[in-house]
Amino acid sequence: NAGVTQTPKFRILKIGQSMTLQCTQDMNHNYMYWYRQDPGMGLKLIYYSVGAGITDKGEVPNGYNVSRSTTEDFPLRLELAAPSQTSVYFCASSTMTGEGQPQHFGDGTRLSIL
Amino acid sequence: AQSVTQLDSHVSVSEGTPVLLRCNYSSSYSPSLFWYVQHPNKGLQLLLKYTSAATLVKGINGFEAEFKKSETSFHLTKPSAHMSDAAEYFCVVTPYSSASKIIFGSGTRLSIRP
């Protein structure tokens, strides 16, 4: 019963490097989300997807890209890492956005840009 | 426009005493409301949800919350705190059919004194 799985759990990047944060879910959820969590703050939505092949920007999309080729996978790409992208990144999924539909979260990827 | 305010950034209680974590929301329509808990280095886990049925909602681990429309509040309570309740708690407002409009509160850190 894996739920939402994120890899890696920790990563240190140098400024200007690129990387992909992986997220996969085994619940057949249509909706998937990427959030970042900065200290003392709530979660900010980066990108979301309502189904395979469909993605859209959230509140803080600059510096990130996503793709959704399958229902299960929703990777997040950082092309040119900047110190402002140091954060904890959470992937989540849900059956839909609607009455009573909770999100299921992965355990996060802790990313430091130095 | 929707918003959610968690009135306390940090709450400290003694083990065995009641817990009250406060959440006020603003919404132009009846929202779905959630409380999530986040333990250190973990993702968010659903505690309970309100979806326009009963105004008093029971969740896991002895937590409950009461939806008060007249006060636009959704406070989280527990009669007797346990050491394992020490965590970060998030109040979340979710609209119907709008994945980009999910609003997270800034969180309340609950500390439990022995």
Number of strands of chain B: 12
Listing every helix as H and every strand as E from the N terminus to the C terminus, the arrangement of chain A reads EEEEEEEEEEE
Rounded Rg of chain A: 13 Å
* Termini separation of chain A: 36 Å
Put simply, the count of helices of chain B is 0
Summarize model confidence as the mean pLDDT of chain A: 93
Rounded to the nearest angstrom, the distance between the terminal CA atoms of chain B is 42 Å
Beta-strand content estimate of chain A? over 45%
Shape of chain B: globular
Helix content of chain B: under 10%
The SS-based structural class of chain A is mainly beta
Specify which chain pair forms the largest interface. Answer: A-B, 30 and 26 residues
Separate helix tally of chain A: 0
Number of strands of chain A: 11
Q: Outline the low-pLDDT stretches of chain B.
A: none
Provide the β-strand percentage band of chain B.
over 45%
Radius of gyration based on Cα positions of chain B: 14 Å
Order of helices and strands of chain B: EEEEEEEEEEEE
Write the layout of secondary structure elements.
The complex is a heterodimer of chains A (114) and B (114).
Chain A: E1 4-7, E2 10-13, E3 19-25, E4 31-37, E5 43-51, E6 54-57, E7 64-66, E8 76-78, E9 87-94, E10 104-105, E11 109-113
Parallel strand pairs in A: 2-11
Antiparallel strand pairs in A: 1-3, 3-8, 4-5, 4-9, 5-6, 7-8, 9-10, 9-11
Chain B: E1 3-6, E2 10-14, E3 19-21, E4 23-26, E5 32-38, E6 44-50, E7 56-58, E8 64-68, E9 73-78, E10 87-94, E11 103-104, E12 108-113
Overview features:
heterodimer; A: 114 residues; mainly beta; seven-stranded mixed β-sheet; four-stranded antiparallel β-sheet; 11 strands; globular; B: 114 residues; six-stranded mixed β-sheet; 12 strands; 0% helix
Give a short overview:
The complex is a heterodimer of chains A (114) and B (114). With 114 residues, chain A is mostly beta strands. Chain A contains no helices and 11 strands.
